[in-house]
Amino acid sequence: GKKYLSTSLPGKIFKEAKARYFKPSSFAYLMISDGCNNRCSYGAIPLIRGNLRSRKFKDILAEANQLAKKGVKEIVLIGQDITAYGMDLYGKPSLQKVIEAISEIPTIDWIRLLYLYPAHIDENLINYIAQNSKVCNYLEIPFQHASNRILNLMGRKTSQSYLRSLIEKIRSRLEDVFLRTSFIVGFPGEGKEDFRELANFLKEIKFDYVGFFEYSLEEGTRAFRFPNKVKREVIKKRYHQLVELQDQISFEKMKNLIGKDLTVLIDDKNEKRSLGRFYGQAPEIDGNVIIETKESLNKIKPGHFVRVKILKTEGYDLYGELRC
């Protein structure tokens, strides 16, 4: 019945030596690090998962090769902050080294990067992604807010001007890049002006996808003790306002794809339709490309890449016909 706020770390974090259980699929997540050193004031990850712990490079590459042999075409690199990969093992960020090695695997066609900490993205990484054709022009970069005051309270090590500059650099170097981010609504001290700044930021930047989270108290974090908590009903109202705003932006962006031919990775199929994704859709969170042309279904299988002409959209889903 006694409540503990901390426990010791287990002796073994990653079971690299054992084969990974894997259900055949066109894509697979590959964790390259765990834990976090960023110490955001609201963040419970360091309390739950500990400090940054990068996997050894050779173990990551071995698992990537294992996945490739099982038919995986897209590897999604994940971690609480993959831009910090290698800092604990090699004394410097080494994400590019991981990408380069996986890019050499002939049967891996797409590499997707999730959870990039904005303060750690530099021009070298952006330029490298731009010249590596296997890295999807799709980045998930959690910004969490746009008000300088709230960003400072969050301990995010960024400012709105920095975020705007970063977005400009990414969009200028990565052709037709898709950006996903996330924001916390109702952080302690968030006033009307802070919320207005966030809403205006969304309107101006026009992200492709955004995840919104209602702030919740996390015992053991610095923000847990912050004054000026925002009332729950206010948080919910602001949350729904932002979701409605972003849905309008995202749906318009989806409509801009009508009439275009896209390369689509097939994830699943049944007797009526096939489901896939183009590079601008991360698995399980961004919708699908749906192909309902029955006569083409026997030509394609999960793991195949096909060309699809987009005919219509419904929310975040795209509907199209097989081109070849």
Describe this structure in words.
By secondary structure, the chain is α/β, with parallel strands linked by helices. Helices cover 31% and strands 22% of the residues. It has helices at residues 45-49, 57-69, 87-90, 95-103, 123-131, 148-154, 160-173, 192-205, 232-255; strands at 27-31, 33-34, 53-54, 74-78, 110-113, 135-140, 178-185, 209-214, 261-269, 274-277, 289-291, 305-314, 317-322. The strands form 3 sheets. It has a 6-stranded parallel β-sheet, covered by helices on one side. The protein has a 5-stranded mixed β-barrel with strand order 9-10-11-13-12. α2 (57-69) runs parallel beside α4. The longest helix has 24 residues, at 232-255. The termini are far apart. 32% of the residues are buried. The mean pLDDT is 92.
